[in-house]
Automatic annotation (TrEMBL):
The protein's name in its UniProt record: Protein RER1
Keywords (A to Z) from UniProt: Membrane, Transmembrane, Transmembrane helix
Membrane association type: Multi-pass membrane protein
Family the entry assigns: Belongs to the RER1 family.
Pfam families, per database record: Rer1 (PF03248)
This protein's record includes keyword Transmembrane: yes
The organism's place on the tree of life at top rank: Eukaryota
Subcellular location: Membrane
InterPro entries: Rer1
Transmembrane regions: 38-57, 63-84, 140-157
Free-text function comment from the UniProt entry: Involved in the retrieval of endoplasmic reticulum membrane proteins from the early Golgi compartment.
One record GO biological process: protein retention in ER lumen
One cellular component (GO) term of this entry: Golgi membrane
Amino acid sequence: MEGVGGDGAAAEAPLNKWRHEASKLFQFCLDKTTPHAVYRWVGTAVLASIYALRVYHVQGFYIVTYGLGIYILNLLIGFLSPLVDPELDPSDGPLLPTKDSDEFKPFIRRLPEFKFWYSITKAFCIAFVMTFFSMFDVPVFWPILLCYWIVLFALTMKRQILHMIKYKYLPFNIGKQRYGGKKSAASSSGSRGD
């Protein structure tokens, strides 16, 4: 009896070692792509285009595409939302400034950009693989799904934009902020010398 357990453990050891090595290699590749946001998003756009061409060519898998769209919408809401929502959790952590006199606090997302990208890319890969199995091709009238998704997107974005306006935050960095303090002081001193 002891030999049976030993053989089973000996057979699993190489598999676990290979799985661990593959996981380390995959994580290494992910870590290498972290600073290259533009290239990552271009790759995801190419993957999304391949998926769209596949769905167009097959003329099916609309329910898979609808599920993918709902999942991406959910990820987008997490990406645009602050980590600490002032409506839900009045805590002692970093809060969004509510008045002009409040000190600047950086916007911290609920879903960071890298995880947002990774989740979307993984979702497109899974949806693409699903298009090769006919059991996922449920016959539906796709224009209704598209209309429903557009209405859902519009209502969700309206709510998110109203939240942004109410708490006065912008979830995007628009370059480095430049202050005109030194420039205006230099120009005014230059005009005095004339």
